[in-house]
Amino acid sequence: MALAININDLLNKQKIESNRIEFKKGWNPGSIYHSICAFANDFDDLGGGYIIVGVDTDDKTGMAIRPVEGVPLEKIDGILQEMVAYNNKMAPYYLPRTSVEEVDGKQVIVIWCPAGSYRPYSVPVNVTAKGSKEYFYIRSGTSSIEARGEVLVELRELANRMPFDERGNSDI
Fold it and tell me: Counting beta carbons within 10 angstroms of the beta carbon of residue 58, is it exposed (0 to 12), middle (13 to 18) or buried (19 or more)?
């Protein structure tokens, strides 16, 4: 799927707020799926977010380090196949959009996570393990954190705040 925004705008954090973009140096499904869940829950109604795999960040500025690390071409198909299995572990089911983009002569994977229609979403603490406990995640600034206490209650109430006319009808 083609990106709705230019990859260089994402890397330079232009046109999209920095709390909606997360850079990952490598493929780490546990951490990445916490962020996918948090973007899908869209607690602050910002419109979801983007995760760019294969890009390291400068700890002081939070900006992408260029040239990018990239994802080895021979690993991309395997990662995309793994994502299909991990998507099934989210409850309710959620499908982020993916795109492989060329940056600085290397391939990166962009995972676009629009706000989900059936929130709240939960994901296992460890998507690679069987029987792992599920938690709800939200974005707090530029971090994905577990929703607890009154934040969790508010997240659950967000599902009831969507007007009936704006809810999708999956039975059509």
Answer: exposed
152 CB-contact burial (10 Å; exposed 0-12 / middle 13-18 / buried 19+): middle
Kindly state the tokens that stand for 85: 């299995």
The whole-number pLDDT of residue 14 equals 72
SS3 44: coil
In this predicted model, what pLDDT tens digit does every residue of 38-78 receive, in sequence order? 999 999 988 899 999 999 998 888 889 999 999 999 999 99
140: which residues sit within 8 A by CB, 6+ positions away?
none
Selection from 170, 19, 3 nearest residue 98 by Cα: 3
Beta-carbon contacts of 89 under 8 Å, excluding residues fewer than 6 positions away, are 33, 123, 124, 127
Q: How many CB atoms lie within 10 A of CB 112?
A: 20
**CA atoms 143, 144, 147, 153: torsion sign:** positive
